[in-house]
Backbone:
């Protein structure tokens, strides 16, 4: 019997994923373990679900029943209410937990009526991690001055240490930001270009990033140079050859995605960084999708700048992202908000540290919840994070094969090594599934008509985007690209529902 189901109106559990938290705790309780006092520091909350007291403190499911036997009885009552006494699934059990094969889905609070295949846009945070963030928020609001003025520096340092270990970076070279686009803005707006200078990027870059580059180029009289990369991708060698061929003596900065947003290609930044450095060109890596999807060793990569999101495959709360700046490039790199750190006395901390650690009054709890996300998500499957990455990568490959079988696209031509936990295929130009791309579609907030139909009729959430994006200002015809993201809460059943919906729509005279 799979545990952890809950209906959205279950008052005892709250939201869908919270009962899954109880299930996670159940799985980690061993006979004979006595209830202990909950950890005082919520940074360790995700690692402390092994005692009944921690369930009480962090989950709210058995909050007033510290006795082990009573706690187990309470959880069993909830399960019988949801699943039915015989395990046949009660009336509150939802598709997310009954027909969906992924046993991990119960840890997320996603709408059970939706087949969610768009983790790549905004991510999704597991219930246990949101509970940790809530505790950080409660702690902050209990005494805001003490928390923000006296304690925050130490909490940020601890969170950066956990992040640094995960991404292979010295914590002192990391700065928390709210998203990767903000990190790109911070870097590019801090740099000065001269008339005629070139900023090198590709036509697979994220629309928002291209907007930033064009804005700065206009400010300084520089020029944005776009490398045309084929889709489907051909090979890492092809990417390296094309990028280096476009670099000139005027190139001052290269901004390259680690994983491209519209087309889901993993680019060989480990080869591009040193090759461009030999020509005196710094690289800013747009790693919005990479952390948690791909193994990272940022120090070894050696890029001047690396921007990464943590709300996507790391599954931290929204507003968690980082900027890594190589030590020799930190002077002059400033956050988007200039605050007290601009003239604070420099002691043990650098100006870079002072400015990025205090960007005005904001809610830092998403950043402080990063260690909990790393611990929780990394503990969900055998093999830890490498196992999680392998699982979502394998499902992305299966999704690509299934989609090409129904759409007739040649997306399967992209080498497996150029894909991570997303895959993308081109939509047909004609027929019921065909049609022109939305001319002004530039962000995840815009929707292709077929994307809307998939959601409204079938409850399937995924993006269909126009590529190249508008900010590429490409002369190439715009192609409609369907992108599937695979997270730990997904399984083959999700892909099958999408394929079935596309086959159904493909038989229609009109959509």
Residues:
């Amino acid at each position: 019997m799979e545990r952890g189901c809950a209906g959205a109106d279950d008052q005892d559990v709250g939201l869908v994923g919270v009962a899954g938290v109880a299930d996670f705790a159940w799985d980690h309780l061993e006979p004979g373990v006595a209830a202990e006092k909950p950890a005082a520091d919520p940074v360790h909350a995700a690692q402390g679900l092994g005692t009944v007291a921690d369930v009480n403190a962090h989950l709210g499911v058995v909050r007033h029943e510290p006795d082990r036997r009573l706690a187990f009885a309470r959880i069993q009552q909830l399960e019988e209410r949801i699943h039915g006494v015989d395990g046949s699934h009660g009336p509150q059990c939802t598709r997310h937990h009954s027909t969906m094969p992924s046993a991990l889905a119960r840890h997320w609070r996603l709408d059970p009526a939706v087949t969610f295949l768009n983790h790549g846009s905004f991510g999704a945070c597991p219930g246990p991690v949101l509970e940790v963030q809530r505790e950080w928020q409660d702690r902050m609001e209990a005494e805001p001055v003490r928390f923000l003025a006296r304690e925050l520096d130490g909490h940020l340092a601890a969170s950066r240490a956990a992040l640094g270990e995960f991404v292979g970076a010295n914590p002192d070279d990391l700065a928390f930001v709210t998203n990767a686009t903000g990190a790109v803005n911070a870097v590019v707006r801090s740099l000065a270009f001269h008339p005629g200078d070139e900023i090198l990027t590709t036509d697979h870059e994220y629309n928002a990033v291209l907007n930033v580059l064009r804005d700065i180029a206009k400010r300084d009289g520089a020029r944005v140079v776009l490398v045309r990369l084929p889709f489907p991708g051909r090979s890492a060698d092809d990417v390296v050859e094309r990028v280096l061929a476009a670099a000139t003596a005027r190139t001052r900065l290269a901004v390259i995605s680690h994983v491209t947003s519209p087309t889901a290609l993993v680019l060989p930044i480990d080869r591009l960084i040193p090759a461009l450095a030999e020509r005196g060109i710094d690289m800013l890596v747009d790693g919005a999708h990479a952390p948690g999807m791909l193994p990272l060793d940022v120090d070894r990569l050696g890029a001047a700048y690396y921007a990464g999101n943590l709300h996507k495959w790391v599954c931290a709360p929204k507003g968690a992202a980082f900027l890594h700046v190589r030590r020799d490039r930190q002077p002059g790199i400033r956050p988007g908000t200039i605050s007290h750190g601009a003239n604070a006395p420099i002691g043990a901390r650098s100006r870079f540290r002072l400015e990025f650690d205090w960007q005005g009054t904001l809610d830092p709890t998403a950043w402080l919840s990063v260690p909990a996300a790393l611990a929780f998500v990394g503990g969900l499957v055998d093999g830890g994070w490498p196992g999680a990455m392998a699982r979502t990568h394998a499902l992305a490959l299966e999704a690509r094969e299934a989609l090409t079988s129904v759409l007739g696209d040649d997306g399967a031509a992209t080498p497996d090594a150029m894909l991570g936990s997303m895959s993308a295929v081109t939509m047909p130009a004609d027929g019921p599934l065909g049609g022109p791309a939305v001319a002004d579609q530039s962000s995840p907030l815009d929707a292709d008509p077929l994307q809307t139909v998939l959601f409204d009729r079938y409850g399937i959430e995924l993006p269909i985007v126009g590529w190249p994006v508008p900010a590429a200002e490409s002369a190439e015809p715009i192609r409609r690209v369907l992108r599937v993201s695979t997270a730990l809460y997904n399984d083959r059943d999700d892909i099958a529902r999408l394929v079935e919906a596309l086959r159904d729509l493909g038989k229609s005279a009109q959509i």
